[in-house]
Amino acid sequence: MPPADAAVISDLRQRIERIGGIAARTKTVLPFGVPGIDRRLPKGGLALGALHEVAGGANGAVDGAAAASFAAGIAARTGGKVLWCYTQADLFAPALAQSGLTEEQVVFFEAKDEASILGCFEEALRHGGLTAVVAELAGLSRVSSHRLQLAAETSGTMGLAVRRWRRHVDARDFGNPTAAFTRWRVTELNSAPLPVRGVGRARWQLELMRCRGGESADFEVEACDAQGFIALSSDLADGSAATEAWRHRAAS
Amino acid sequence: MPVAKAESLFADLVIMDADLRGDEVGLEKLAIWALRLYSPIVATDTPDGLVLDIQGAAHLYGGEAGLISDVIARLADLGITAYAALADTWGAAHALARFGQKTTRIVEPGGQSDALLKLPIAALRLPAEMMPDLLLLGLDTIGELAAKPRAPLTQSFGPKLFRRVDQAFGRLAEPIEPVESPELISVQRIFAEPIGAPETLEKYTRRLTDMICDRMEEAGLGSRRLDLHYTRVDNRIETIFVATAKPVRDPKRLGRLLCDKIETVDPGWGVDKMTLTAAFVEPLVPKQVVAQYSAPPRPDVEELWDTITNRYGRESLYRAVSVATDIPERAVKRTSPTSTEVGSKRNASYRRPQRIYRRPEPILALAALPDHPPRAFTWRGQRYSVLCADGPERVRGEWWRNDNEKGKVRDYFILEVDNGERFWAFRAGDGQHEGTGSLKWYLHGKFD
User: What mean pLDDT is predicted for residues B413-427?
Assistant: First the structure.
């Protein structure tokens, strides 16, 4: 592309953003610290003051373990207090510290039903004293996601909806559009092989399924470290892991 | 029993006159104690009881059973042996606490008629002079009395007899006149015409909040709990209250918390008096505000915690603190979000799963003894073959807590199966000694 065309395109992008109001509302972003991923996101990171959706792939749609870990890593890196809302009481709090979310940083809200989760999610996003709110949800309608998005915009708090369903068939709901800025799917892959016996650092197939102002992408990453940072898989070069991932996705 | 007889039975008997007035004063003190802790409507039930209207207050103690056991336990700490009963009506609760023969008793809503039938008529709060005559008529239990024709008995005993019966069964309303603590800060507003529209209630709620905040400011106090009584024209009292984690004196914040609850108030034919009381106050000194010209500071999170706990109950919001134990079921303790408690340091090199099953799920697995992970296992009818594994991490039963755990062992493994999922599994028993466990395999969690 000639440089003149690039300048025209970037100018057009900025004008579209201004029309959509995105630029005014989301002032800052939270980069992943991985250039390969940040390059794919508008402004080089996840928008703060926005709603993001995360779900697990395959069996993760029901247990949501990897999705929770991914969300915990992001929430931890926002730096402030985090509220974590859930209905299914199977979250193991000490494990969140492995993704960087320390026990001083996070407060849990155990709700009786999804309606109170949505209510609490919105209240917490609108309040602004927190830096991130994570909510484990099954249903997220277009209207409620829009409300959450607006609440996040007013306060600059990041909202992370961990979508998690009771049954596999309900996971089809993840195809329905919502007002979230980005939508991620995290599927567990086999861990990096170790030279000795044991299980190495967990690896994920990370799919950016939808991104406002950006394009979808696939990454193969290593799970969050103790600071909440993910890393690109080191052995991408030999290609074996990637083909395995494709086979896995075709099977699921 | 005459005093002389009692003296002959016990050698060192201490005898003193009954101090009825003193008892009453003591009971009133206890009522104010209960008012601060449990419920905005508390009254003395002389000579020996307290009556609490706990509608809308029980969820703060984990439901009705939780509240009752908390009352009994705290009174026991004060050296008072108490009996408690919870029922739809004052009369039924009064009777069951005294004659129910149980330390605590909770009657289902509407169940008081069945619970009362077998109790003696002494449980009905009737005047003492009426009792011998009723017994003479052969009326022993409340059920017998309630089944009698009313007219002849009313003729001889007056209307009070069946009024007490009706009050106990819930056919007649019986308002509770709550105790008021003289030193409590309280503001009230009486209306010439009853009000009932939610907007009007909200408007005056906010005005009263402003007034009470001014009063608290004069006294240098902040409220931890505010009670708002709406006295209806039919003499029933509707109550809402809000509790905060730290003393607060901000009228906007308190007003919002109170208005959040107005939808639970049933104004009936109208409200003609509103009383706002700071039931529980703590000193609150004004804070120096630093002028900041850069970014505005983030709002105080405690405000959010108060909003959530007042709306969804106190036990739903918590901070998880690590406990020094290896047993995963006991690894987390819940504390309030504002507490500064620091948990015990965990050794981070032992990985823990993101999801933990409340009850370990039995799986079919075969593994070489004593310390090899299984090569494959079957869970919920599906077979998983294990690619690699980490372990064992040995966890021993805590014999100092529980005799059943003495000598028991769990060997935990991280199992990675062929589709990339990672599970946390354990074998009950160490694989060498029979007494340590059944050698069965269980899944206990799921890794990311």
Answer: 92
Residue of B263, B335, B355 to mutate when probing chain A, most A C-beta within 10 A: B355
Question: Judged by CB atoms within 8 Å, which residues 178-217 of A form the interface with B?
Answer: 187-191, 193-194, 197-199, 202-204
Residue B329 lies in a domain: no
Domain count across chain A: 1
Domain of residue A207: give its range: 25-251
Tokens of B278: 């700071």
CB contact under 8 Å between A198 and B299, yes or no, is no
Give chain B's domain count.
3
Identity of the residue in B319, B390, B420 whose CB atom sits nearest the CB atom of A103: B319
Q: Which residues of B touch A78 (CB under 8 A)?
A: none
* Residue A19 maps to a domain: no
Check B346 against A108: CB less than 8 A apart.
Answer: no
Q: Do both B49 and B156 map to the same domain? A: yes
Taking the CB of residue B229, how many other CB atoms lie within 10 A of it? 20
For B155, the domain range is 19-169
Both B147 and B65 in a single domain? yes
Q: How far is A172 from A11, CA to CA, in rounded Å?
A: 38
Q: Is residue B332 domain-resident? A: no
CB contact under 8 A, B298 and A188: no
Q: Residue for token digits 């155990």?
A: A110
B348 domain-assigned = no
Mean pLDDT of A104-125: 93
CA distance A114 to A196: 45
- Contact state of A81 with B301 under an 8 Å Cβ cutoff: yes
**Yes or no, beta carbons of B355 and A130 under 8 Å apart:** no
Average pLDDT, chain A: 86
Say yes or no: B202 and B140 in one domain. no
Of residues B299, B307, B351, nearest to A123 (C-beta):
B307
* Residues B50 and B125 placed together within one structural domain of the fold: yes
For residues B78-107, one letter each, b for 16 or more C-beta atoms within 10 angstroms of the residue's C-beta and e for the rest, the string is eeeebbbbbbbbbbbbbbbbbbbeeebbbb
pLDDT tens-digit map of B32-47: 888 878 888 888 887 8
CATH of the domain at B218: 3.30.1490.100
Same domain, B232 and B111: no
Residue B138 vs residues A234, B154, B197: alpha-carbon distances, Å = 92, 16, 53
Mean pLDDT of B304-323: 89
Whether A66 and B354 lie within 8 Å, measured CB to CB = yes
Percent of chain B topping pLDDT 70: 98
Which of B300, B308, B342 is nearest residue A123 as measured by Cβ atoms? B308
Q: Which residues, including other chains, have CB under 8 Å from residue B270's CB and lie 6 or more apart? A: B193, B194, B195, B196, B232, B233
Average pLDDT of the residues in A223-230: 89
**Cβ separation of B299 and A128 shorter than 8 Å?**
yes
- Say how many CA atoms lie within 13 Å of A68 toward its Cβ: 30
Q: Is residue B31 part of a domain?
A: yes
**Residue B390 to residue A199, Cβ atoms within 8 A:** yes
Last residue of a domain, one of B107, B142, B169: B169
